[in-house]
Design a protein that fits this description.
The chain has 407 residues and is an alpha/beta fold. The chain contains 14 helices and 15 strands. The structure holds pyridoxal-5'-phosphate (PLP). The site of pyridoxal-5'-phosphate has 14 residues, from helix 4.
């Protein structure tokens, strides 16, 4: 693995007929997939396809072994010693909806409070709004300050004793901010609330240790860390997974079923009703293998140094303001260029074969906080190189020039 040429492992970035190489800077939305992940998914369908946990023949055992070994890799990757604390889901959105359903049915009472933050992705807001309407719980929000951080003492002093759930992101998909999750989990624990951490933008970027963090639940999506779409994981403390009944019923999640009653399966299977995304889980396992071979330390340092270089070069562009912190951040950089709408910037960059996101990034409350209708976001990952930053900056300077001539 040559870190300077990782893009050669990614067919979409490597096998490109365009004159200029595609510069993919929309990694906070989803990442490209290396050959090893694509091949693992394809090999599963070619060589091992059978349903899991129920097929009494060797092919079925092979498929089950591959699926369960992906669960073990996932557990090891986020540092829980207990594979049974890993529930496969479609990703963060499904995990949070699952938790919202379970907790509203089995923990929350009318008048209770769910604490979220102003920085959340819609997937950590809307599921809670749905259950708040349905069961009369209240939503409260931690405020953002400065360059996009929370004030821990403000959280403690404003804590509503009726708060039963505190659900927050580990890192922002808009500002790149990395939040102090250990401290946030500690506050939730001391106050007797269930903590839920959205790891969509953190698990891809640095090593995660859920045991050290002390969270109750932690979730992430495979497609943002070179894995397939439609697969992710929900970590839950064993004691909590055992305490709560499942939200969905069907095959696989039961031990016995009679016409009026069922006995549920053990964790984690009681939360995985129906045929799971077997190929996706195996692909996620291959993605973890890929990142572990590189090491998460290296992933972190590569993306950090690229983001630092991009921030330095962005600061030279006239009328461009970066939102979010300069340090202690991931590779997601949102910015505003005076006089040019983010959608125009994105489509002009696309003309130079550079892919970025423009819009509200599924985080409208942050846009309101920033007082911007939208931003442009460049987000870096392991296969980006300094030359990508240079081409991106050259293109932005060209766009700046175009709009200067118009006005
Ligand atoms: C911070 C954050 N949370 C949640 C999500 C939702 O992830 P998914 O669409 O994979 O469920 C995203 C995706 O962009 C995200 O960036």
């Amino acid at each position: 693995m040559n870190p300077a040429e990782l893009y050669l492992d990614f067919p979409l970035l490597r096998d490109n007929d365009d004159e200029e190489r595609l510069i993919f800077l929309d990694n906070a939305a989803t990442t490209q997939k290396p050959d090893t992940v694509i091949n693992a998914v394809s090999a599963y369908y070619r060589e091992s396809n059978a349903n899991v946990h129920r097929s009494p023949y060797r092919l079925g055992e092979k498929s089950t072994d591959l699926y369960e070994s992906a669960r073990s890799k996932t557990a090891r990757f986020i540092k829980t010693a207990d594979d049974k604390e890993i529930v496969f889901t479609r990703g963060v959105t499904e995990s949070i909806n699952l938790l919202a359903t379970i907790l509203s049915d089995q923990l929350l009472k009318p008048g209770d409070v769910i604490l979220l933050t102003e920085a959340e992705h819609h997937s950590n807001i809307v599921p809670w709004q749905i259950i708040a309407k349905r069961c009369g719980v209240k939503l409260e929000f931690v405020k953002l300050h400065g360059d996009g951080r929370f004030d821990l003492s403000e959280i403690e002093s404003n804590w509503n004793p009726k708060t039963k759930v505190f659900s927050f992101q580990h890192a922002s998909n808009v500002l790149g901010t990395i939040h102090p999750v250990n401290e946030l989990c500690e506050i939730a624990r001391c106050k007797g609330a269930v903590s839920i951490v959205d790891g969509a933008q953190s698990v891809p970027h640095f090593g995660i240790d859920v045991s050290d963090m002390g969270c109750d639940f932690y979730t992430f999506s495979g497609h943002k860390m070179v894995g397939p779409t439609g697969i992710g994981a929900l970590y839950g403390r064993r004691e909590l997974l055992e305490r709560f009944d499942p939200a969905f019923g069907g095959g696989e999640m039961i031990k016995r079923v009679s016409l009026f009653e069922s006995e549920y399966n053990d964790v984690p299977h009681k939360f995985e009703a129906g045929t799971p995304n077997i190929a996706g889980a195996i692909g996620l396992g291959a993605a973890i293998d890929y990142l572990e071979k590189l090491t998460m330390k290296k992933v972190e340092s590569m993306v950090n140094s690229l983001a630092a270089y991009a921030l330095e070069r962005l600061s030279t562009i006239e009328g461009l303001a970066v939102h979010g912190p300069q340090t202690d951040r991931t590779g997601a950089i949102s910015f505003w260029m005076d006089g040019i709408h983010p959608h125009d910037i994105a489509s002009l960059l696309d003309g130079d074969n550079i892919a970025v996101r423009a819009g509200r990034h599924c985080a409208e409350p942050i846009m309101n906080w920033l007082k911007r209708p939208a931003t442009t976001r460049a987000s870096f990952y392991i296969y980006n190189i300094r030359e990508d930053v240079d081409r991106f900056i050259d293109s932005l300077n060209r766009i700046r020039g175009l709009f200067k001539n118009v006005s």
